[in-house]
Recover the amino acids of this structure.
């Protein structure tokens, strides 16, 4: 409130300065100041825009830029800031869907269709009717080894911790997931009271710090895990090996950011520095990892257990597949995080130069699992810059079973990409622990926007599926998507990435793309 008052006083001072310079009448000065004060009070009281609540009047300048003509709008809204592009078109689509606004665009294609990298879907002259397709496509995870398999939406909230997100943001995502019937991944920051408040479906992520199920020395505590994993809201458990934003990099929670609320969810002492190592201490080999997964499945009462990783060295994943084949021990799902993913902050070198991009990683993982005859038992979740129905379709065409989004869900909350995620000064109250800023994010409003965005994206995917002539998303394959190589050449995905045949990696001769990784 103090900062809001400061903003208003600054505006009044500016107006007084203008009055002294141009000598407008005193009456008009009073009218202008009164109008601005009234507008500021309205901005602070309304519940639709957290930016206006935090920055009355000043926050409206963003909407002014949005309404400028295209050349100026591009200059102000799509310029690079520290090398990070603002993709206004995709962000705007999320905003519109979250608000249930018309999301169509005028004057045709807005991208260069002859530029290398352009992708499109091949539609069918025998298109099906979208209204005749399943309006809530779901995938069952854990049907092979679990007594409590989970029927998941094909589009869910990717991992974001309480601590990285404000309590209001976590609550909004949770209530939105409850309304829409999809799952919220807790991130590695533990199972907080804010995740549990909404009674939504949760994917509890367990990282290298074992937050929420750790001993004082940071090692895994099986008793705590068993107790918390049996919570009815927890539908699956995800062991995080690495993430797209900074794979192979540990994390540090500074003492001054380790508030009592954050410490409670993570199971650590407040106001102490907490380190997350780059690797797990509960296992060191691929076989030990599979044994750990099997133990967690038992401790949780038969819930699906999976792993999340960003692909680095292919031979290491091949070794993992070989161990799964030989021992019969395997996860119920694998989340593949693309190197381009990440919604918070990470070292520049890691963000730009470490980790395999999602498309390449998906192709490799899907083919590896098929080659070792494992895919029939393991579902694949794709995560990394997935924002719309076409993004989902492309990932499922490659071979993923379902998708998760962090970036898109943040946009639905009102994220404007202020790039202050790591500074605790997020102006929209999403990525901050500053109570004054986060209090501007009104859960009752944002939860519905999250649900709207999910529903609109699913509807878009179903319409695309119908246009392709299919009546079931499980029939999607690499032959349905095209990729432009240059101005005159393009190929289908199945021509770029030749599909693996079941069992092709179990004996020589191996496919040439995999031969050098089979050691």
């Amino acid at each position: 409130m103090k900062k809001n008052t400061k903003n208003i006083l600054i505006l009044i001072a500016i107006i007084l300065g203008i009055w002294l310079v141009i000598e407008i009448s005193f009456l008009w000065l009073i009218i202008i100041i009164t109008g601005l004060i009234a507008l500021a009070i309205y901005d602070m009281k309304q519940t639709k825009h957290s930016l206006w609540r935090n920055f009355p009047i000043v926050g409206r300048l963003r909407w002014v830029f949005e309404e400028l003509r295209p050349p100026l709008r591009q200059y102000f809204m799509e310029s690079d800031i520290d090398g990070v592009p603002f993709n206004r078109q995709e962000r705007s689509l999320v905003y519109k869907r979250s608000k249930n606004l018309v999301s169509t665009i005028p004057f045709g294609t807005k991208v260069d269709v002859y530029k290398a990298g352009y992708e499109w879907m091949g539609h069918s002259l025998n298109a099906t009717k979208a209204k005749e397709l399943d309006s809530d496509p779901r995938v069952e995870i854990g049907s092979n080894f679990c007594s409590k398999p989970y029927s998941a939406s094909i589009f869910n909230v990717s991992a974001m911790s309480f601590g990285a997100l404000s309590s209001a943001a976590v609550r909004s995502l949770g209530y939105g997931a409850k309304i829409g019937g999809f799952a919220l991944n807790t991130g590695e920051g533990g199972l907080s009271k804010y995740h549990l408040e909404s009674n939504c479906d949760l994917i509890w992520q367990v990282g290298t710090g074992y937050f929420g199920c750790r001993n004082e020395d940071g090692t895994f505590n099986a008793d705590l895990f068993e107790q918390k994993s049996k919570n009815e809201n927890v539908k699956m458990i995800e062991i995080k090996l690495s993430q797209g934003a900074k794979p192979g990099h540990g994390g540090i929670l500074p003492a001054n950011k380790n508030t009592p609320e954050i410490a409670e969810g993570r199971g650590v002492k407040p106001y102490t520095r907490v380190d997350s190592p780059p690797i797990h201490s509960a296992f060191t080999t691929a076989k030990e990892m599979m044994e750990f997964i099997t133990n967690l499945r038992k401790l949780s009462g038969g819930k699906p257990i999976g792993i999340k990783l960003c692909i680095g060295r292919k031979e290491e994943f091949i070794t993992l597949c070989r161990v799964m084949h030989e021992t019969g021990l395997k996860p119920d799902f694998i989340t593949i995080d693309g190197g381009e993913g990440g919604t918070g902050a990470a070292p520049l070198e890691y963000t730009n130069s470490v980790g395999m991009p999602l498309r390449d990683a998906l192709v490799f993982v899907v083919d590896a699992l098929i080659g070792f005859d494992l895919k029939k038992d393991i579902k694949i979740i794709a995560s990394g810059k997935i924002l719309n129905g076409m993004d989902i379709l492309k990932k499922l065409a490659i071979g993923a079973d379902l998708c998760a989004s962090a970036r898109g869900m943040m946009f639905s909350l009102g994220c404007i990409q202020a790039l202050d995620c790591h500074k605790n000064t997020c102006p929209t109250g999403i990525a901050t622990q500053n109570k004054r800023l986060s209090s501007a994010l009104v859960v009752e409003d944002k939860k519905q926007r999250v649900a709207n965005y999910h529903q609109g994206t699913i509807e878009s995917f179903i319409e695309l599926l119908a246009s392709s002539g299919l009546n079931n998303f499980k029939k999607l394959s690499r032959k349905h998507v095209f990729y432009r190589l240059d101005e005159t050449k393009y190929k289908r995905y199945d021509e770029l990435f030749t599909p693996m045949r079941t069992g092709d990696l179990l004996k020589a001769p191996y496919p040439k793309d995999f031969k050098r990784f089979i050691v």
The CA atoms of residues 255 and 272 lie 4 Å apart. The longest helix spans residues 443-467.
